[in-house]
Request: fold
Amino acid sequence: MLRFMIRRALSLIPTVFLIITFAFVIIRIAPGGPFASEKQLPPEILANIEKRYHLDESLPRQYVRYLGDFVRGDLGPSFRYKDFTVGELIADALPPSMLIGSLALLIAVTGGIGAGVLSALRQNSWIDYAAMSLAVIGISIPVFVTGPVLKLFLALKHPWLPTSGWLGGRGGWLVLVMPVLTLALPYLAGIARLTRASVLEVLRADYIRTARAKGLSERVVVLRHVLKGALLPVLSYLGPAFAGIITGTVVVETIFAVPGMGRLSVQAAINRDYTLIMGDVIVFSVILVAANFVVDLCYGFLDPRISYS
Amino acid sequence: MSRFRGLVLALLPIFLGAQDFVLNNGTEPQSLDPALITGIPEGRISMALFEGLTVSDPVTALPVPGLASSWTVSGDQRTYTFHLRETTWSDGTPLTAQDVVDAWMRVLDPATGSAYAYLLSDNIAGADAYLKGKGPASGVAIHARGPHTFEVTFVGPLPYALAMLTHSAFMVTPTFAVKRYGPGAWTKPAHFIGNGPYVLKTWRPQDQIVVARNPRYWDARNIHLQSITFLTIEDQNVAFDKYLAGEIDYVTDDSIPVGRIDEIRLRHDYHHMPGSSIYYFVYNVTRRPFDDVRVRKALSMAVDRDELVRRVLKAGDVPTAGFVPAMGGFRTAPGNGFDLDRARRLLAQAGYPGGRGFPRITITYNTSARHKLICEWLQQAWKASLGIEVQLHNLEWNTFLDTKQKTHDFQLARAGWVADYPDPGNYLDMFKTGSGNNDGRYSNLRYDRLLARAATLPPGPARDRVLEEAESILVTEDQAVLPCFFYVTRFVLDDRKWGGIHLNAIDSHPPRWWYRK
Reply:
């Protein structure tokens, strides 16, 4: 088990190295640059600025310099936000994204699994139809519709909630409600459908028939045997979903003015903020790989056929 | 429940004795260091935190005394002697004329990497040589002639000198703090030192910046707000919803959503007046068919700018076929306005009667709802009136800049310009042969000579006539650009509740004068 974990952790190194290299090249190919503006700078002034950020050096040298700084844990200064380093910006933007992401995922997982199991156990009942119709709606309505609609009813028509903003402002913790709900909805719907399908399949499996034949109570059958088997597909869905949801989504963050990673990354790309884009890409990829790793570990607990020793 | 919450929110500031004013400031500022900033959101905050020798008047937008209480001008109008107020930085350190010298030298220092260093190097004697490493620091004609006497010598008799000094590049920054804490750290709330009406309290990237009244400001007793919160919201609809819900007090020009103008312009709290930024298209005069002046003129004469502004944009922008807004004694050139008959004749003379044989042309613009609307309107207008085919090509911002400025790979491109300081020369200089902002690569030696002459003339009618002649070459004779309209300047504010914010042509609203009625 430990060997497996160490091996996986080590495999992160070449992955991140490859990602840095790809990102570095792709960003530099994009037209424009971090200091382009509608009012062009006189050449000698542009030269001064580029020198300050080592953009006057050759690309391979910049690449080696970046790798060197990265190994020392330095993601460099932001080219756009001149008073901040990339590390400081990400340290500020990650917690808000993680907070609404984890809350949304919590709601999505509990609500989704609950609704899915209930629908499957009461297949073709009105509960099943109602839950699954809602799920289809949840999946098919994009967040850029749900967000503004929620805002229209809960904040503008009725002043129950602040329209947007973040903790520490006038709105208090109520600012969390709408972004978390908006973000949770599609995941909740997805998990509900996945769980239902998976539970239905497991219910027909031989080992469930065996469990029932042994005379186990329905409660024990469902909780101990059905659920354990049925959650495997949900789990593989959750890995990437978790990475995606906690690293921020630009649409929800924009609609509700959440100071998170999604907005930061999009602005970085628009501004050609080379170092900040690199930092974002690295954070995203590390979290994605780590989330998949955790999912792999969980398989070991849920699926008796998988063993890491 | 909701009414109760509203009541508590409304009463809370009274109980706390605080007057907080909240506005949306748009995108996250690039920096709070006035030596490094270039954008509008940054400029707005810098006026709260720092002050230069002169500041712009909230009503007229003309320069009035700031850190300098008075000044004298030499006979040749090149040397200005400023008398500074006896005041201190926000940490209590006395502010002297040497601080002004140090602050300006820091902007010029190549190691600072200031984008607006050219405002100093273009205008102050000896500064250009120093910036380019060809002259000594001692050659820059700025001097402290006493603890509170500051002297600067310009390269010529600049008619716009006092207005230019209100610009953020000329603000006074604490170089001792920059040295002590280092760049990037001195602008953080923990170390912040300034000389403006407000000091920095909180800075949360992508969320908000809060400034609080500076009790050591020289005019502190006339600063009436306890604090100002600048929110960082890029999306205009999100910001405007916040205003509708009463969460912010002031929607600036750049935060008004274009798509909702029909609804907004009917509001009692919508204020607008003609501004001084120009919206235009630039011809690449080196590319067929725009190397022919008749074609350039024909296209301009086929644009009904009144209809564009009234029926399409509906925001109150001012149609123009000229390029430079009227200011002082300067009058805008009439240019080649809407005249379909002449447009068709010119196109025929150029060899394209009824649009026959005219190559398909492309308008390049950066992605935005407003630009798209305007370009589509042009496309159908030219098709209907001249019978020519137009393609639209929209590009993401940085790609657009690259195409327009570096590769010049366009035929007709959208452009906009807002002056750094109110002077006609600032609009016309960019079309000089070889100028960095001359994206269409226009060149006319007569035009260049007129601008060179204007630079040597003192302010007054003679200089205005020379500049007017240059403008008329640009837009009437050569039609190097296709001007459309002067942007309207506007904001949304309940002026029964808040005061000190007034409409003016350059859209300058220094926080120093804001108050609650």
